[in-house]
Specification:
Length: about 80
């Protein structure tokens, strides 16, 4: 599967540094980042500013298919 960053990042007009677990990547702006495709589903863990650049620390979303409805757990097993 192919994933993209969260939609709000395209509104960032400053240079963006994205800190993944094992590397950092710099983008010209948020629109450039929003066009990037990833093989994992990354979520923004924290946002900060350093030297006129937006720093986004990312974490992997491990709960992609984990669904809860108003406090009830998702059904994992078949009824049959």
């Amino acid at each position: 599967m192919v994933y993209k960053s969260e939609s709000f990042v395209e509104r960032i007009t400053s240079p963006v540094v994205v800190a993944f677990v094992d590397k950092e990547v710099e983008y010209a702006d948020g629109r450039t980042l929003s066009e990037q495709k990833f093989d994992k589903y990354w979520l923004v863990d924290s946002i900060s500013v350093w030297d006129s650049k937006i720093i986004l620390v990312m974490k992997e979303n491990r709960n992609i298919n984990n669904v809860e409805w108003i406090g009830e757990e998702a059904v994992d097993k078949s009824f049959f």
